[in-house]
Amino acid sequence: MLVRGLKSKIITPKGNLLSAITHTLKGLPARVAIREGDVLVIASKVVAITQGRTKKITGQKEFKALVEAEADQVIGGNQVTLTMKNGIFIPWAGVDRSNTPHGTVVLWPKEPFKTAGKICSALKTQFRLKKLGVIITDSFCAPLRRGVTAVALGYAGFYGVNDLRGTKDLYGNKLKVSQQAIADMIATAAHLVMGESNEQTPFAIVSGAPVVFTAKKIDTKEPLMNADECLYQSLYKKLTKRERKAK
Length: 247
Known about the structure:
- It is built from six helices and twelve strands.
- It has helices at 17-26, 44-50, 60-70, 112-127, 182-194, 233-246; strands at 2-6, 38-43, 54-56, 73-76, 82-85, 88-91, 104-106, 132-140, 149-156, 162-163, 179-180, 203-207.
């Protein structure tokens, strides 16, 4: 699998995301151009910016209020507020103060699956491709692990979860719970070259990824599970209960 980060000019609220992507892809040398079977990974921030998902804030009080308004559920925390949004545990409901002008924040993009689908369809037509994947990604924190990986907020063109339940391992044991988070793993690989700071690399092309492509509309619930199935359910239920008592 080959992952290539793609630099771009700074994308502003007045910019057109599809035009920026197309301009970047057309500027690539022929030997590294986007090809049949590739997956294009896009930073959620540039999607949100071009959707007008920026807000001006004057201080921590406004930031906290905005986080609470954006979150589906506030779990708690001290230095970092853990929240639930769109079925994903994420700090500050995705409200981000990095790589944005002072005094402004960027929210999560709207309808990431629908947006990924539109971009995927447009790029297939533009570059005459039959098999292409698109992922909109953001950084992600795993419990008790330092640093960030990445999560696919939305994707299109391929199945994002590979269900291995019912198959057998090397010794003939039937797998009962194993599923591969394909979209999230590709997003994490791309995130490694896209960066977190001043890299100015909002796109990445992933070639040779082990995905199953599809022209069908992706079910937005595919990567999600019910709360009672979650491995960490006992932990966040306790946190939520403690938060309610504190109030």
